[in-house]
Specification:
Layout lengths: L2 H24 L1 H4 L2 E5 L2 E4 H17 L4 E3 L3 E2 L8 E9 L1 H6 L5 E8 L2 E9 L4 E6 L3 E4 L2 E3 L11 E3 L10 H5 L1 H5 L4 E3 L4 H9 L5 E7 L1 H13 L3 E4 L8 E6 L12
Parallel strand pairs: 3-5, 11-12, 11-13
Antiparallel strand pairs: 1-2, 3-4, 5-6, 6-7, 7-8, 8-9, 9-10, 13-15, 14-15
Helix pairs in contact: 1-3, 7-8
């Protein structure tokens, strides 16, 4: 696709994310109602409502296939060269609890790689957007990854997917590796965590067994902001292991999450 077409996709994703985000903020009291609970994972009314808004907006202006968290492939579409990947509300539990860490996440994948990313934090009116090869922006002002090269002075952004092993033994194994970092932050939204790495607020992101819709937009942002991303291969429906960082921490190992 021509660069101008990717720029048009970025503008479309921004518009869709802003529209959905403003509805999520305005309708919080009605949309925060829990609709599904499975183990540590929950769904709220907002997940489906925001997805419908976004899918309708993307479909009206683009003929590219859409893969979204709540309903999967839209209209029988399947993986192609270019695919929209949508998480209508990343951080549903935070939204339900009234905790600010939640956002709309929209990405465009090209041959499996994130090339366009938009994450809208509607609680703080922060619009992260990026186009790989062109740049990344926060509210349309340029952002770049940090220059930190020492984990002892860095911030690790991470999280625990709902399917993660939470046994005492598994959690204890993290202590040694996490202790290398100045700070470790888990904010309950992979989309925001990766966006923060792109903006230099964090330095390194690592999460295992996360879903592509959680991280696709943020990974595009990290790459667009000058960072490095590694996503394990596989079908879009399968969990992925994801690393994203500023490029100065390439040799750092954070252990098994």
């Amino acid at each position: 696709m021509k660069r101008s077409d990717l720029a048009a996709c970025l503008r479309l994703a921004e518009s869709a994310a802003l529209t959905a985000g403003h509805f999520l903020a305005a309708q919080r009291s009605a949309w925060r109602v829990m609709t599904h609970e499975s183990g540590r994972d929950i769904k709220v009314k907002a997940d489906g409502q925001a997805e419908t808004l976004i899918v309708d907006l993307l479909s009206a202006a683009s003929d590219l296939p859409i893969f979204s968290e709540e309903t999967g492939w839209q209209a029988g579409a399947r993986e192609a060269g270019q695919v929209w990947v949508v998480d209508p509300l990343d951080g549903s539990a935070n939204y339900h609890q009234g905790i600010p860490g939640c956002a709309v996440s929209i990405a465009l994948l090209e041959d499996g790689q994130p090339v366009v990313g938009v994450v809208f934090d509607f609680n703080f009116d922060e619009l992260f957007s990026g186009l790989v090869g062109a740049g990344a922006w926060l509210n349309h002002k340029a952002i770049t990854v940090s220059e930190v090269s020492d984990p002892g002075k860095g911030v690790l952004m991470t999280g625990f997917p709902a399917r993660r092993d939470m046994s005492a033994q598994a959690l204890a194994a993290l202590a040694g590796t996490w202790g290398r970092w100045r700070k470790v932050r888990m904010i309950g939204s992979a989309a925001l965590a990766t966006s923060y790495v792109a903006a230099g607020r964090g330095d390194y992101y690592h999460e295992e067994s996360t879903m592509i819709w959680d991280v696709a937009a943020g990974c595009a942002l990290i790459k667009a902001a000058g960072g490095v991303v590694d996503i394990s291969p596989g079908p879009l429906e399968d969990p992925r292991d994801v690393v994203g960082h500023n490029g100065k921490l390439a040799g750092v190992s954070v252990g098994n999450l």
